## 1
Amino acid sequence: MKKYPLVILAALLTGVMSYQIVATSTASNLFELMAKWGDPSIDPYPWFEATLWDFYGNFVLIALFVWHKENRWYAKLLWIVFLAALGSPGTGLYLLIQALKLKPEQGLKELFTKNGAA
């Protein structure tokens, strides 16, 4: 996969994830659900706990990738904080920015190597 399909895919998925989060947030208050953590009234929602485990596990893996990819320590820390705050849309934005740095003939290999997008 070369640069432009990567850019389109990252932009599309970031938009879809962001829309879904905003739509869900307007329909259901996550903080009210979190206040009821362990309450039997939310036991029928096993996906709630699975989603939290999924997010934190994914976050650690993405943070390791960012730590490897970024050259400056402050960029590493800022991006990791940003990714923690924005979750999946933040990851999509990070990959979109990295894909935009690629030359037209570059692709996944260069996207995932340390200095591939230089």
Note: The helical segments are 3-27, 30-35, 46-69, 73-86, 88-100, 108-112.
## 2
Amino acid sequence: MARTPQELAERTTRAAIYIRVSSEEQVREGYSLDAQEERLRAYVLSQGWTLAGVYRDEGFSGKNLSRAALQQMIADAKSGLFEAVLVWKLDRLSRRQLDVLHLIEDVFIPAKVGFRSATEAFDTTTPAGMAMVGMLAVFAQLERAQLIERVQLALGRRIDQRQWNGPAPYGYVIGKDGKLTPHPREAECVRRMFLEAVEGYGLRQIARRMTEGGAPAPVRSGRWYAGTIAKFLRNRTYLGEQPVRGEYLPNAHPALVSHAMFLQAQAAIEQRKTGARPRRGKSPYLLSGLLVCEECGRPMHAHRHRNRKRIFTYYYCDTARTTFQRCGAGYLRVEKLDELVTRMFLAGQFIREETTEESALSEAALSEVRARISRLVVAVEEGAVTVAEAKARLARLRSDAEALEVRIGASTRRAQTAQGMAMLGRLPELWTKASLAEKQAILRETVSRIEIPPSGIPRIYAFT
């Protein structure tokens, strides 16, 4: 509620103190924040004012007004809880000229709230004072713009020299030249997790093995988590690339894994999401990595259950395991489903999936990527594109080409394997003589997935 000049004269001015710090060091130590408050409290006392409140924003930049304490102070000013706002310096309120003028003209003046700085002499109630505020705000904004320019120039120099900005990622340390160099033990852990992903281990399995193996974890708990493994397996820094504004500069530092290993790990992760994931050949269950619940689309795994006398093993989907509710066909005995799938597979009761179309699409995409690489080389020769710009784009195109080559190779191999089995006609004979690992290999090379509908009767999808 607005107050008349007579009412203001009859009472002591109530003043609000606003203080802000931006750096994490200041927030952690608390020195600058407390120093501002101590001096501003003394200023309030020297003016004979009454302290109406202290508004503290810890760790906030002055580039915008999205600060909790500032927004609360604005609301309190409009509610008439004080008649003056006191800051140590103008840039504590904001470093942007428009924001400062907005607060003074659109918030403080309509609410009949004066604005003071303890170190900069001006009075917002006079035209000259308002002009002074505008000039100080301009210089605050200029200082911030010059700071940003200096930081960007320094950042540009570091990028040109392939120096790393920020803390070193897991697996590396920052050398004296500012570049990343492999950390002896952590780098080996990175290579190990990529290798295990390619071998068919899941994210949780890799995390458990890393924890049990005593691998140094990137968190204080000392434990590895599936989310951490997933993040690391997608990190192109381990290819020797440096992220810069959404692009990746190649050959910025030593790579920890090859492009082939990186792409194989991505393919293994994606295959596990669909249930048709490669296995490492050590599972005691015949259908591991192939079963998919038709109802929810999640993989089905084998789990052991014990009662007082026996141990029973069932296949059921991840949804049932995590929600403890029935999903799809529910619990299926491992022995019975293995026997049923084997009988159907040997009898040729499966749905054929055409791999030739997939291969043709991949080959067409590969041809387009190779054409784009050729056009990029020509553009560099003609001077239409700089070498620096071309390097990042060329690295991305080469990565795409390698991924397509891996996909085409896998598709061709599966087609040849399935056609070879069909021509030989010796699958039943080979099956009876094969070990569990060999049977698993035959299924992985010829079967893309096995869907289990609520009826429990499997549908086998084989490559042709």
Note: The longest helix spans residues 387-424.
## 3
Amino acid sequence: MEDLDPQALADRYAAAWNEPELAARRDAVTRLWSADGEHLVGSREWKGHAALLERVTGAYEKNVRDTGHRFRAVRDAQRLREVLCFHWEMVHGASGEVLATGLEFLQLDVDGRIRVDHQFIVG
């Protein structure tokens, strides 16, 4: 994990939420999160690859497929030991206008995969 590029991980994370092909989305989930990885947003939580795929697919269908919006990682990813954080934006597909923002706080395992993903919706 020493050579892990924080921005590259943030970019791969955002790309997973935009992925139109189910097989590629499933592959992205298994490469990003550990087998028992968790995603927490407010009082909701998803644990394990199947639940994480369901979460990412639901967000893709609602925010990307049905509306044409895109997610992108802001160029501010930082890592301190096993913690990585970055901001993300959901942008209008045609205009690029920022429609929503958030903060990801990721706890990584020894292989650089996400153990716990804390998502904070900022605006």
Note: The radius of gyration is 14 Å.
## 4
Amino acid sequence: MIFDLIIIGGGPAGMSAAIYAARARQKTLLIAGEFGGQMARKEVDIENYPGLGKISGLDLIARFKQHLELLAGQTKIGEVFALKKDGDIFKVSAGAEELQARAVIVATGAAPRLAGIPGEKEFLGKGVCYCAACDGPLFAKKDVAVIGGGNAAFEAALFLAKFADKIYVLERGNQLRADAANQEMLQKTGKARIILNARILRVEGSKFVEKLIYKDGNDPRGSEIELPAAGVFVKAGNLPAADFLGGLAELNERGEVKFDRQNNQTKTEGLFVAGDVSEVRFKQIVVAAGEGAKAALAAEAYLRQSQV
């Protein structure tokens, strides 16, 4: 059996693509290790998905799944470990099976890169966060810390400045990596304190985060310093799940899949990409869903043209 389209990944991009493909009556299979992607690991409410107000990550996943099931979309739980193209046909290795399709959408997402400090995993969803746009409003009139000194960290701090009383930005090196414009904008808020040469030791608290412990890398005594903080935002980058693509797609320096912004196609004809695994700039649920829809529409056009 050869599918018209195989979608790899069960996050908002993959499920959105599958919904569009099912509506187009394409013979489609969605393969996912789990449904929801990063939403499945989200323990706080999502407040920025249009039309839904406030909703939990798990409830939003359920709505995506219900919509797909309503359209009789075909799904399979499993991990994809290899993808190759033989002539005009893609071969997808998932578990012990080799599945075939005329087109493929890769929507495998990315996982936040962990800082690797004690307390980080224990307080995930209890003050330790990876998305300022998602969780920033929860820390209104509180003090927060941002780990990182690049543009992502400063963009997060700028967003947090709308809500938090004070923002500590901790950079391990002796100089910041963020653009000068971002640094200037953050300083103008009057809420930020920049800490260089910060060696993060651990996150502490009772039920929720209460403080971040670090030491000054230039201090030979190695004295511990406590920062009172209700939230700790880790901005150490993301790890896109693109290793299985081999030479079918080109990756940028961050390991994200490069693609044609007009139709979401990679360097390989018939291979499309959507969501956080791609080099799309903004890593948001609504953006991933939109990119999934766009990839599905582009794949439909590709399949239609290839039949002519």
Note: Helices lie at 12-23, 57-70, 132-135, 151-160, 180-188, 285-306.
